[in-house]
Amino acid sequence: MRYFCFLLLALFTVTAEIPDFKITAVPGGKYKPFQKQFAQHINVFGIRVFGTAKTPPGKLRHIAVILAEYLDNDEDGKPDNSEVAAELVKRNAFMAVCENERALERLDHDVFQDAGFHSGQGQFATETNPGGNQFDATLEEVLHLITHEGYANIYPQIFGERPGTELAKCLDRARGGHFKRVPRHYPKGAWFTYDDRTCDYGCQCTEYLYWAITSVLGAQNAKHRREDIQHEWRLYSRDLVRTRDPHIFRLITDPKYRLPSQLPDGKYNGRPLDR
């Protein structure tokens, strides 16, 4: 198994290319199942970003750029954590981007899953806000793909999305206890109080990690944003995470995991964008 892992990483290192963010038609071969519902495609370090015909190309490209920035946070032309990037490629991870929420809900997911593609993350253009006054959901959805499909599988005892992992222990502290199901009322003093009852324990792990990372990176501390999220998340800044939730702060800032240390800004400089 160790030899197989090393072989995968070596193959990834040889074949990965710096993304140029060119939008192409959906390729054939193993990606042919996507051709029926998607018309646009971008390759980012081997991870695919698919867009419907009505998805604005600029927003599709923006999502691809944020993906590149999260993976290659120092923008030196290669993923910072090659093991995580290789895992995403191995699992055929992809972003499925539609023009709006209704179109996303109407996708026939069986088409992908029957072809062996189980590692997708959905996003719609109307929640994608590059450079706008509204919060850009790309910062959330792309990070979900990376942590859920990448980090949770490469570091199962640390970032695994199940009870007993280091991430799960942090989650239980943040919610004021261990809850298999979303409680109707969280204990007083909890700072993560997500109330979506369809979000199971693994989902709660994913959401919690997103809040912690993006708060440390500075995505949540604008005044209007703090007001929007206070019902769900209290630690909106780096200092608050560091002082109130030191366990998760140490975990996500530990350099051995090579998680992002800078918030993506939609401008990837690993190679100049093709305008």
Shape: globular
* Head-to-tail CA distance between termini: 43 Å
How much is the radius of gyration in Å?
18 Å
Order of helices and strands: HEEHHEHHEHHHHHHH
**The number of domains:** 1
Largest sheet: 4 strands, mixed
Number of E strands: 4
Number of helices, where a helix is a run of at least 4 consecutive DSSP H or I residues: 12
**Poorly predicted sequence stretches spanning 5 or more consecutive residues:** 1-15
**Strand line-up across the major sheet:** 1-2-3-4
What structural class do helix, strand and pairing data support?
alpha/beta
Helix content: 40-55%
Q: Average pLDDT, to the nearest integer?
A: 92
| SS strand fraction | 5-15%
Could you please describe the fold and organization of this structure?
It contains 12 helices and 4 strands. A hairpin with a 2-residue loop joins β1 (40-44) and β2 (47-51). It has a 4-stranded mixed β-sheet. It has one domain (2-257). By secondary structure, the chain is α/β, with parallel strands linked by helices. α2 runs parallel beside α6 (138-154). The chain has helices at 2-15, 57-71, 82-90, 101-105, 109-114, 138-154, 156-159, 166-175, 201-217, 223-229, 238-244, 246-253, and strands spanning 40-44, 47-51, 94-98, 120-124.
Could you name the key traits of this structure?
275 residues; alpha/beta; 12 helices; 4 strands; globular; disordered N terminus
